[in-house]
Design brief:
Peroxisomal Thiolase, Chain A, domain 1; 2 domains; 9-stranded mixed β-sheet; globular
Length: 383
């Protein structure tokens, strides 16, 4: 296997982008990443695109062909990768495997979702859960995560305020990110007084409905310096699966797919949680920001709430979490998220993250979840 490097990254603004179509978003992200990598479109050997549900959101399937065509990249091989909200993380992993195996040299892994063109995105999002046993019984994503939150509060005494702090910290970081969908600071009180969505989760516990795209360019590590003075190396790329439905889990407060993907990632990289300087976690709801730091091994199970309350996950804390603003503040265009997380970690490791820079960051991690944890992808990157 060859070592792999990231030589270019990009992200479009995330938000409710009325004036940009699905194909515009992904093409813009791709062109920006190509520029960032100092290459030409013609240098690309293959493309992987993470996308959860263009069919339901914009009535378009066969999107890999659409994108290669619109971006002028034909005849390169291109493939869509789908694993619900982890589609981007898996597109990254597929690109890495293609380069590592020697199948392709210069690969673009991208992600895109245009969610705001439908009147109600909730049924489309719910297809990431178990249709027969969850969605068709009326359970939406906020309510699935609400059950996990309730159980964590019951088992470990996690407080409503501690959950709110996950959103507060994300927004504090996101306010420093010009590409974020909701770049405003909020307080615990604003979260606690926002509209109830699924008890105990309120509006400001939820990631928003978003449009956006992101891309990264990969190449063999030994060739990376041909293109850039600041290559970022892939130390681990792992993926694990878990039960799609919540009722099949032994424990509602642990996402096994995260635990397993993280364990393999630390092993592949030869690193421990204490070696990670910054992490982008999948905080689709505030409870998941909390579960993630437990399941990734940064704190003991049950201690996430208190760690967050004590500032461990702040930009200058022991383990800075979501310097980008995370899914909550940066936004969550489903298929784009896993790639945007990698772009943020690359900016952090290059020292290019501006006001949200984690000082001296050398090793970073991304954590991308599909559904309530049917899939998890973890990457460790280093400069
Ligand atoms: N955070 C902050 N503000 C938000 C927001 C969020 N998550 N979602 C919406 N808003 C704001 C809107 O900008 C709007 O503000 P305005 O009145 O000043 O214009 C207001 O809140 C109402 O927006 P609206 O679009 O009507 O909200 P909604 O009630 O239709 O949707 C949620 C809110 C929480 C239900 C929706 O964002 C949601 O479903 N989020 C979860 C998405 C999801 O499940 N993703 C997959 C995770 S696995």
């Amino acid at each position: 296997m060859r070592d792999v490097a990231i030589i270019g990254v990009s992200q479009t603004k995330f938000g409710e982008l009325w004036d940009e179509s699905f194909r515009d978003l992904i093409t813009t992200a791709g062109m920006k990443a190509i520029e960032d990598a100092n290459i030409e479109g013609a240098d690309l050997d293959a493309m992987y695109v993470g996308n959860m549900s263009a069919g339901l959101f914009v009535q378009q399937e066969h999107i890999a062909s659409l994108i290669a065509d619109h971006a002028g990249l034909t005849p390169i091989p291109c493939a869509r990768v789908e694993a619900a909200c982890a589609s981007g993380g898996l597109a990254l992993r597929n690109g890495i495997m293609a380069v590592a195996s020697g199948f392709h040299d210069v690969v673009i892994s991208a992600g895109v979702e245009k969610m705001t063109d439908v009147v109600d995105p909730t049924p489309a999002i719910a297809t990431a859960s178990d249709q027969e046993w969850e969605a068709q019984q009326g359970i939406t994503f906020p309510s699935l995560y609400a059950m996990m939150a309730r159980r964590h509060m019951h088992e470990y005494g996690t407080t409503r305020e501690q959950l709110a702090m996950v959103s507060v910290i994300n927004h504090k970081n996101g306010a420093k990110n010009p590409l974020a969908q909701f770049p405003m600071e909020i307080t615990v009180d604003t979260v606690l007084n926002s509209t109830m969505v699924a008890d105990p989760l309120r509006l400001l516990d939820c990631s928003p409905v978003s449009d956006g795209a992101s891309a990264v360019i990969l190449c063999p590590a030994e060739e990376a310096r041909k293109y850039t003075d600041a290559p970022i190396y892939v130390k681990a790329s792992t993926q694990a699966s878990g039960t799609i439905a919540l009722h099949d889990r032994k424990d509602l407060t642990t996402i096994d797919a995260t635990v397993n993907a993280a364990r393999s990632a630390y092993k592949m990289a030869g690193l421990k949680p204490k070696d990670i300087d910054a992490v982008e976690v999948h905080d689709c709801f505030s409870i998941n920001g909390l579960l993630a730091i437990e399941d990734l091994g940064f704190v003991q199970k049950g201690k996430g709430g208190i760690a967050i309350e004590e500032g461990m996950t702040e930009l200058d804390g022991k383990i800075p979490v979501n310097p980008s603003g995370g899914l909550k503040s940066r936004g969550h265009p489903l298929g784009a998220t896993g790639i945007a997380q990698a772009a943020e970690i690359v900016w952090q490791l290059r020292g290019e993250a501006g006001k949200r820079q984690v000082e001296g960051a050398q090793t970073g991690m991304t954590h991308n979840i599909g559904g309530t944890g049917g899939t998890a992808a973890v990457h460790i990157l280093s400069n």
